[in-house]
Amino acid sequence: MLKTPYLLFLGDAPDQLAAKVAQGIKDWRPEFSLGQLKLDGCKAELGLPNMTIAEAKAAGAQTLVVGAANRGGVISDAWIATLIEAIEAGMDIASGLHNLLRDRKELVDAAAKAGVELFDVRVPTVEYPIADGKKRTGKRCLAVGTDCSVGKMYTALAMEKEMRARGLKASFRATGQTGILITGSGVPLDAVVADFMAGAVEWLTPDNDADHWDLIEGQGSLFHPSYSGVTLALVHGGQPDTLVLCHEPTRTHMRGLPHYQLPSLETLRDTALDMARVVNPDVKVIGISVNTAGMSVDEARSYLAEVEQRMGLPAVDPFRDGAARLVDALG
Amino acid sequence: MLKTPYLLFLGDAPDQLAAKVAQGIKDWRPEFSLGQLKLDGCKAELGLPNMTIAEAKAAGAQTLVVGAANRGGVISDAWIATLIEAIEAGMDIASGLHNLLRDRKELVDAAAKAGVELFDVRVPTVEYPIADGKKRTGKRCLAVGTDCSVGKMYTALAMEKEMRARGLKASFRATGQTGILITGSGVPLDAVVADFMAGAVEWLTPDNDADHWDLIEGQGSLFHPSYSGVTLALVHGGQPDTLVLCHEPTRTHMRGLPHYQLPSLETLRDTALDMARVVNPDVKVIGISVNTAGMSVDEARSYLAEVEQRMGLPAVDPFRDGAARLVDALG
């Protein structure tokens, strides 16, 4: 979908966190990441070469990716001149922000004139089918969480990286805008119309080689009342052979819902397996991915050991430890 | 949303089945159903007075409802003159067909001139919120099915009718286009964007009197891989106090999916309860609604008796028997 390589546009990002999309691209797809472009006042830094539009174009950049958010997640007026310069140099523009490139007339006009494309990756552009639930060839692994934002994308990307390093066939399948910008394609599942959610996931994870693994980015949680329907569409559309349970142990309540507790890992395991067996009776949980960012090294070690013993499954923090043991467990 | 009473437009419906939307309105909302309008070749009959547009207008009709489908579910060219006549007489037009009133320029122009509205009830018009899962006042009953099209809408409507006949406070809450046309309002849930599904159901079933029951139309099935995400959004957004299990015992496979078996009533009960307890720990299954249209009277009797004994819950066919025993069981 998106043409690579990228120039990563950081705009006037007020801090490093505001550039987390660009950071994700640089971390997971360094081969796509030619350089960075900062405006006055930018406080983020990727450690990539600083490039002007002309330098990026000369180096082969095909797409300028908006890799930063300012307050409100909008396209800033301060960015427009640079975006138009990139368009006029013949580069596509890609953004995952809430307000859309296509709603800025000056960008639309410039893109039409230059013959380049504007990609708002938050908005579906494909007419997805209704899911048919037919068995597909190849293997699929889905990350499911006790809550939203517990490391499902990170886990799937870390497993893909480990598998590719071993020479195995693996494809991260993005289902949210950050993942789509990182890999250049995917389905913005939370923006798909209800009837087509599961079909969109089937479309994203089609027939493949028998020894190929799709590593599917999870969304939401079966236990998060706001988004659980999206998660179940992933479980049924994704037809997983294996599940990885994702958890953040310092979370005191469901994200955004102070009146909801997180389920236990055991409850998540049992419910996710029950639902996934509808489409694949042989599905298994193969491991647990824990985001231990909120713990000391010692706390994390002891927590992971306790979970591993209790659940009888490998329990790792892929950020601290890598995903090798999860890949080993794929079977 | 829709203004009542209605003139039910049957067009050139080739048979009675093609007029099932109009039949549903007449059966469940006779007080909305002033008359019928048939074109040449119409083979459907509601047993209502035949009315011209002028007669319907004089009798007080506020909305012409397209109550029939021709082959393909499209708005027929043969209908246009009549629809424009209704618009010019000052009536709104409502339709649940796949192709939209708003896409016919002659209808849009006539409606703008006459100052009336075109309602395509298949398309959401509300900006629904993200669900917050907060406990709401009043009571809610949700129909869940072993499959699609097993009588969930019929069950909820029959329970509403029985409750109103007893002087109880009850509101059928429509989640599909037929239900919306019948009652004049609702949410076309299968057309809502994924992130807002559960929020749309919360919006549809807001705080209410402590002794008021929402009878929520179910959609899909937790076990139907094409639509299960929509169903889970209903379970979590609907925050049910009670569930009614709906089943069609002669079905040999999941609707549209010959390679999928239906779950047992026991499996549906356990899974639906597990999921519903996330939002309401006190939720109960109170009965079973069986569509026995494919069975003889004797077969139906014996099947219902067997299910009732096996499940320890009232099992009725509301079409044959009414919904009194389900209402008794609401508690």
From TrEMBL, chains A, B:
<dbReference type="InterPro" id="IPR035402">
    <property type="entry name" value="DgcN-like_N"/>
</dbReference>
<dbReference type="Pfam" id="PF17396">
    <property type="entry name" value="DUF1611_N"/>
</dbReference>
<dbReference type="InterPro" id="IPR035086">
    <property type="entry name" value="DgcN-like_C"/>
</dbReference>
<feature type="domain" description="D-glutamate N-acetyltransferase-like N-terminal">
    <location>
        <begin position="41"/>
        <end position="124"/>
    </location>
</feature>
<dbReference type="InterPro" id="IPR011669">
    <property type="entry name" value="DgcN-like"/>
</dbReference>
<dbReference type="InterPro" id="IPR027417">
    <property type="entry name" value="P-loop_NTPase"/>
</dbReference>
<protein>
    <submittedName>
        <fullName>N-acetyltransferase DgcN</fullName>
    </submittedName>
</protein>
<dbReference type="Pfam" id="PF07755">
    <property type="entry name" value="DUF1611"/>
</dbReference>
<feature type="domain" description="D-glutamate N-acetyltransferase-like C-terminal">
    <location>
        <begin position="130"/>
        <end position="327"/>
    </location>
</feature>
